[in-house]
Amino acid sequence: MSPQRPRSIEVDFFRGIVLIVIVLDHIPGSVLQHLMLHAYALCDSAEVFVCLGGYASAAAYGAVLSKRGERAAHNRFYKRCWEIYRAYLLTALLTLLSGAILQRLHLNQPMVSLTGWPMFSSAPVKEALEIATLRNQPYLSSVLPMYVLFAITVPFVVPFARKSPLSALSLSIAVWLAAVPLARLFAIDDVSDWAFNPFAWQLMFVIGILCRERPVPEHVQQSRAGGCLTRLAIAAVLAFAVVKLFILTQPLPGHLKQNLSIERVINFLAIAWLAARLVSNGFIANLARKAPAVVKVGQTGLVCFVGGTLISLIVDTATPHGLSGLSHGLAALAGDCVAIIAVLLLARFWNEWKGPTQPRAAVSGADCR
């Protein structure tokens, strides 16, 4: 059993940033979303979110295992599976209710269609059953069903990754390579129509688990090979940015994200390596200590994700859409600021309501990959 390590303040900081970015990314008129990762890379916040989810899951499993034993660790993640499923149902309900209210008030009609309310209102019983069985996933709730599946596998994947990390990674890559035919094989459950193919995206989750269980040693990062990897990562990130900014003129097909295409994986790994180097030299920890409100968002992940869906819908509806030029830009920027503040306040109020939390210690750079 690997020694228990303190929870990473850097990971909580990254998770907080990603949760805020997810809210901004789902406000169609957002100004700040043009500064986000997807504007300069072929991957986006989804890869970061899922990878950090794997890291946090491995950390949580290890903490329960060391204190209460294997059975308690298994039960914790079966309970977590149920928690995520309930969060999915709540997110779907909030999405549909928002669509119903918007339609009733004749507001933000494009968002009404996105929420799935028109289809639900035409056949509520059928659609409710489809949502409950994960066949139909309204709007922003679509990322949660695969987390339900991932939570079930944690008690098996984490011990496997600890015992044989290379085998765990190899098996994960094999499943990723076979993701499309596997999705078609399970078409009876409409897996092939999920916004995120879980057979593909499990690779990001497993990478996150391996980053926690088998981090890159500090001496490797500081070695000549580590330096070469850093320079290669910088070149890759710049190359992908050039492609995204100057070569691609149309949005990429949705199936590339759905099935986690290889270019998205490579782009993410290059960014992740550079982020790991910033963690290693203490830069991220120092930044996190100066932004405790963002760290708190990361510690309140599921609540902020569910609440963030409602925040993005409200802000998008409240932002005037009839403006143009500078007025439109200022109104959209004000909406972005309101959304960010709302997410920060949600995390703060939730933590105060739940009571004081245990302090999160910063860990060494080698523990944060």
From TrEMBL:
Q: Which domain of life is it from?
A: Bacteria
What residue ranges are annotated as transmembrane?
Answer: 12-31, 37-64, 85-105, 139-161, 168-188, 194-211, 232-253, 265-288, 300-318, 330-350
What are the entry keywords?
A: Membrane, Transmembrane, Transmembrane helix
Q: Nucleus as a keyword?
A: no
- Tell me which InterPro entries the record gives: UCP028704_OpgC
| Keyword DNA-binding (UniProt) | no
User: Do you know which PANTHER family this protein is assigned to?
Assistant: BLL4819 PROTEIN
Protein name as catalogued: OpgC domain-containing protein
Please report the organism this UniProt entry assigns to the protein.
Paraburkholderia bengalensis
